[in-house]
Automatic annotation (TrEMBL):
Residues 265-277 have a biased composition (Basic residues). GO terms for cellular component: cytosol. This is Glucose-6-phosphate dehydrogenase (NADP(+)). GO terms for biological process: glucose metabolic process; pentose-phosphate shunt, oxidative branch. It comes from Mycobacterium kansasii.
Length: 308
C-alpha cells in the first residue's frame, strides 16, 4: 500500500516497485511470484494534511484486509521529512488506523533523520508517542541491516581468533571510513540543510563505533544490545593530545577527485555543488559540507583504559 502526494494510480505505483525489485532483488526474479505479490498493491494519493485522503486510506486498507486475509495488522513506514511526523501521526490517529484493536497491531517505522538536534528529536518523540505506544515505534538505521555490519558481532564475540585480541593490548586505534561512490544526485537541497554530521555520523557511524568498541552484552536480545551500546557511547570523549596529529594525518577532505570501480570520478560531486537547492556562501560560492572527521576516545575495556 502506497500513500503520497504524487498523482499516481495503483499501476504507476506498481511499476516503480517492480523496477526497484528487479534491480535490487538478491535472489533470481520470478515473474509468477511477482504477479501474486502485485495483486495486493494499492495506492492512495493525498497530502499529509488531507483528512479525507487518510479516510480513503483507511477504507482501502479495510477492503484489502478482507480480500487478502491479512488480519488488520499494519506497519506504517514513514519515508517522509521529519517535520511531517507529527501531522502524519495525528492523521493516522484521527482516521483510526493507529488505534490498537483486539488481536491486531499497528506499528510505525521511522528512519533518520529524526529531528535536527536533541530538543527537536524529543519533540518528535512526544508527538509520535502521543499516538503510538513506545513498543509500537521502530526507529531504524538501515546501516544495521547490511550484512557486513551484522557480521561484526559474530566476528567479535563468536570467533575464537579475534575475541581474545580485540583489546587495547593489541589494538592501537580503529579508523572507520565511510567512502561513498555516489554523488549528491537529487539530494543536494536535503544535504545542504542536514549536512554530513547529521546525515551519517550521529547515526550510521556512531552505530558502527559502538559495535566496534562495546563490551560483550549479557545476551544478544535487542534490549541487551541497546543497553551495551548506550553504555559504550556514554564513555566516549576527546582523544589525548598525543594521538590527535596521527589521526588527523590520516584524513582528507571529501567531495574531491577520487575513484569508483577503478574509474576516475570528478564531476559527480561537482554537479551536486551547482544544484539549484545548494545555498551560496557570502562569496557566492557553493560549499555544502560533503565530509566530516570525528576523533573520539573510549575508556571501555574493548579499546583499553587509555586507548583511542
Amino acid at each position: 500500500m502506497g500513500f503520497a502526494r504524487r498523482d499516481w494510480d495503483t499501476q504507476d505505483f506498481g511499476q516503480v516497485v517492480y523496477q526497484a525489485v528487479k534491480e535490487h532483488c538478491r535472489t533470481p526474479f520470478r515473474q509468477e511470484n511477482w504477479d501474486r505479490l502485485a495483486e495486493g498493491f494499492r495506492f492512495v494519493p493525498g497530502s499529509f494534511d488531507d483528512e479525507q485522503a487518510f479516510a480513503r486510506l483507511a477504507e482501502t486498507l479495510d477492503k484489502l484486509d478482507a480480500e487478502r486475509g491479512t488480519g488488520g495488522n499494519h506497519a506504517f513506514y514513514l519515508a517522509i521529512p521529519p517535520k511531517a511526523f507529527p501531522v502524519v501521526s495525528e492523521q493516522l490517529h484521527k482516521s483510526g488506523l493507529a488505534r490498537p484493536q483486539s488481536g491486531r497491531w499497528s506499528r510505525v517505522v521511522i528512519e533518520k533523520p529524526f529531528g535536527h538536534d536533541l530538543d527537536s528529536a524529543r519533540e518528535l518523540n512526544r508527538a509520535v508517542n502521543a499516538v503510538f505506544p513506545e513498543e509500537s515505534v521502530f526507529r531504524i538505521d538501515h546501516y544495521l541491516g547490511k550484512e557486513t555490519v551484522q557480521n561484526i558481532l559474530a566476528l567479535r564475540f563468536a570467533n575464537q581468533f579475534w575475541d581474545p585480541i580485540w583489546n587495547a593490548h593489541y589494538v592501537d586505534h580503529v579508523q572507520i571510513t565511510m567512502a561513498e561512490d555516489i554523488g549528491l544526485g537529487g539530494r543536494a537541497g536535503y544535504y545542504d540543510g542536514i549536512g554530513a554530521a547529521r546525515d551519517v555520523i550521529q547515526n550510521h557511524l556512531m552505530q558502527l563505533l559502538a559495535l566496534t568498541a562495546m563490551e560483550e552484552p549479557v545476551s544478544f536480545k535487542p534490549s541487551a544490545l541497546q543497553a551495551e551500546k548506550s553504555r559504550c557511547s556514554r564513555q566516549l570523549g576527546l582523544p589525548s593530545r598525543s594521538t590527535r596529529p596521527a589521526a588527523v594525518g590520516n584524513t582528507r577532505p571529501a567531495g574531491r577527485a577520487g575513484k569508483s570501480g577503478g574509474s576516475a570520478r570528478r564531476g559527480r560531486f561537482r554537479r551536486g555543488l551547482h544544484h539549484r537547492d545548494v545555498r551560496r556562501d557570502h562569496s557566492g560560492g557553493r560549499h555544502p559540507p560533503l565530509g566530516r572527521c570525528a576523533l573520539l576516545s573510549t575508556h571501555r575495556k574493548a579499546a583499553g583504559p587509555q586507548g583511542d
